[in-house]
Specification:
Layout: H1 21-25, H2 30-33, E1 37-41, E2 44-49, E3 55-63, E4 66-69, H3 76-81, E5 91-92, E6 98-99, E7 103-106, E8 109-112, E9 123-124, E10 134-138, E11 142-149, E12 163-172, E13 175-184, E14 190-192, E15 195-196, E16 207-210, E17 214-218, E18 224-228, H4 231-238, E19 247-252, E20 257-262, E21 267-273, E22 279-284, E23 292-296, H5 309-312, E24 315-317, E25 322-333
């Protein structure tokens, strides 16, 4: 089980991209810059890559020493590959994380998502992150991004429900705000979930603070097996090092507030979420520089999972029904 292996703390200095000159290079690349939307409010900047899955490429603060990154910034090759997995964060529609064997039963039929991405054995993160988003209303500090999915019956593994998604990204009050919404445009009910997938700078001193109640244990395919206690639950409440466990797990009934802290740098970033972002994913793999703390509305494999609605999450949107909820990230320097 990947979620119970304890690991000693280890140095992350080589992976600390807080003020890396390499990360700054693409900010000044005119070819890449032409594809981006940059928001500003005071010293804060948010850089969006609409054509890379509607992703956030960077969220940083302008300082005399250079950009101070609050999320892990995208590398230049992420733009070349148009790969949201190497961005700072990206939206998840119309479900979060994996669907076992890329299929599930719904409304008397089998929904087969197999073949939509040969890299993954299980369907992953929905489909909105695999497509460009359209830029809508825009100001210096805010932008609307839009995506509309029209099912393609000839495309293997395509999501068979028509829907429209929107992100309202805004810098205000010293924080990054993202309001996510979706409307079912199909003439039938649609199963649904959404979330965001932020990556954080990971160093030897990083700590994750979150009030959670239980953890979904997972099998070797990182698919949930059962909800129950785990030492990580108490560790998160106290302030957990990403090096404490080998995690890629969902946590249930969190307080919808989590803080990523870098105490040696005397700074932290607090994430807040509205309902129904009632589930939290912590991705902190062993021997790896990645760290994600993800607000989501559903557990992994929620359409197949056995459990109560409270523990599994997700919902069913009726024809024409819309859902909307907001997220925010507030940086603080002491």
């Amino acid at each position: 089980m990947r979620d119970v292996s304890l690991n000693p703390a280890r140095s992350r200095a080589a992976h600390d991209v807080t003020r890396s000159a390499t990360q700054r290079s693409w900010l000044d690349d005119p070819v890449i810059a032409a594809r981006l939307v940059t928001l500003s409010a005071g010293a804060l900047r948010a850089v969006l890559a609409p054509d890379v899955g509607g992703a956030l490429a960077a969220f940083y603060e302008v300082t005399p020493e250079g950009p101070l990154h609050w999320l892990r910034p995208a590398l230049p090759e992420a733009f070349e590959a148009r790969d949201p997995l190497r961005m700072a964060s990206f939206p998840l529609f119309p479900y979060c994380n994996r669907i076992r064997d890329a299929r599930f039963a719904f409304d008397g039929a089998t929904i087969d998502l197999a073949g939509n991405d040969p890299r993954f054995a299980h369907a992953l993160h929905g489909n909105a992150w695999r497509h460009p988003w359209r830029v809508g209303a825009r100001s210096e500090s805010a932008v609307d991004l839009h995506f509309e999915h029209e099912p393609d019956a000839s495309a293997t593994g395509d999501w068979p429900f028509r829907y429209r998604a929107r992100q309202r990204i805004e810098l205000r009050g010293g924080a990054l705000h993202i309001t996510m919404s979706a409307r079912n445009l199909a003439g039938r009910p649609m199963p649904f979930g959404m979330g965001h997938h932020p990556y954080y700078p990971r160093t030897a001193s990083t700590r994750i603070h979150a009030d959670v109640q239980a953890m979904w244990h997972a099998d070797t395919d990182v698919l949930p097996t059962h909800l129950g206690p785990h030492p990580a639950v108490d560790a998160l409440r106290a302030g957990m090092s990403p090096d404490a466990f080998d995690l890629d797990n969902n946590f249930s009934k969190w307080s919808r507030v989590a803080t990523i802290a870098w105490p040696d740098e005397r700074r932290n970033l607090t994430m807040r979420a509205d309902a129904p972002f009632d589930h939290l994913v912590v991705f902190a793999p062993a021997n790896d520089p990645q760290l994600c703390v993800e607000p989501v509305t559903n557990t992994t494999d929620c359409f197949n999972a056995v459990g109560t609605q409270e523990h599994v999450g997700g919902c069913v949107l009726q024809p024409g029904e819309e859902i909307e909820a907001a997220l925010s990230w507030t940086p603080l320097r002491e």
